[in-house]
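Fold it.
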Amino acid sequence: MQNDAETAKTTAPDTAEEADRGGGESLRRVAVASFIGTAIEFYDFYIYGTAAALVLNQAFFPTLDPVNATLASFSTYAVAFAARPLGSVIFGHFGDRVGRKSVLVASLLLMGLSTALVGLLPGYGTLGVWAPLLLIALRFLQGIGLGGEWGGAALLAVEHAPKKRRGLYAAFPQLGPSVGFFAATGVFWLLSAGLDDAAFRSWGWRVPFLLSFLLVGVGLFVRLKISETPVFAKVRDAQEAAKVPAVEVFRRHPRELLLGAGGMVVAYGLFYTATTYCLAYATGTLGISRNTMLALSLVACLFLAAGTWLAATRSDGAGRRKLVLIGCALAAVWPLFPLLDTEQPVLIALGIGGALFCMGVVYGPMGAYLPELFGATVRYSGASLAYNLGGVLGGAVAPLVATRLQSAFGSSSVGWYVSAMAVVSLVCVLALPETRDRELR
């Protein structure tokens, strides 16, 4: 039987292209909605990573020695990555059967509220062992919410976009992580600069989490104004929805799923090594001040945004696969830790910024590439699962492995670890086809 990905190559009219004629304002609204919602959700996700690197070890694991407290903090951080594939299955099921829009609203609510509650959670000194247990539970809910977010936001952009501009419109949700990370780092930097250390560790770190209450309201306002994608509307009208989309993905698209996940490994690994781990390493091992590292991370965010936008928009002409392969090759040879170990702020910014630029070159085209690998009846589940399974391998374990490698073998071993992830992703993408010219249905 011809599978969805194969029939997608030859099927009929591009409904999004039809919608684009006379529908420019609608497409702009879709681009804004996919961007804002994703930026808010990734802000929620990244503030936890920054807090895990700076303060959660002392707030929730004060009885452990420094290395094990850091590992425990990063372990709670990793819980969300384990939850994200489950979120992909849950939200993907309803996204492929009920629609993209309603599921995106639900994921935003779950992610935002669980994030805000972290800011209200008492520490170990008040609740004892219940504090880290509740922290893990809220982090798990964060992962469930984000597991449903990216696939829906990417599909919202890609399934509304004209065929020859899918990379361009997919660039907007792909910019969400850059902006979310910039906002998360910026808020922590302002608090760190404006408060003394005792105030920051006592209550200041909670402020970024509590801001999520406000951001959820903004995101809901924007997302409730968008319409369902024309591609899914056709599936719904024809009553072609898959009964259990996740099962169909594993049964009919195992190759696309596993290779797509492998292609995402280096994007996650680079990001969380260059941000979360490097923040902990530079402040804890190299002795660089927290304020300096947060400021340098803000600069590095600009490199991530530039790489993401450049590669995503160029992928409409050059092809998704080619640009992802270029990003993997650059990531394999980038000298992140030699630059970091100089302890010179300019070179540290260059090291982290260059790593994030490489990550952006891989990540940018993925907003269109992963959805194009799957047919419309399972696209939400397939793209989300590939994206988030890559996160388990590349994002969840990267800070943990890097911490152990550095303590045992030095920082150069962490650099080799990042290069190995880049090679894994490169090999996986080499085994995938180009999808730029496929029709969506």
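The longest helix spans residues 66-97.
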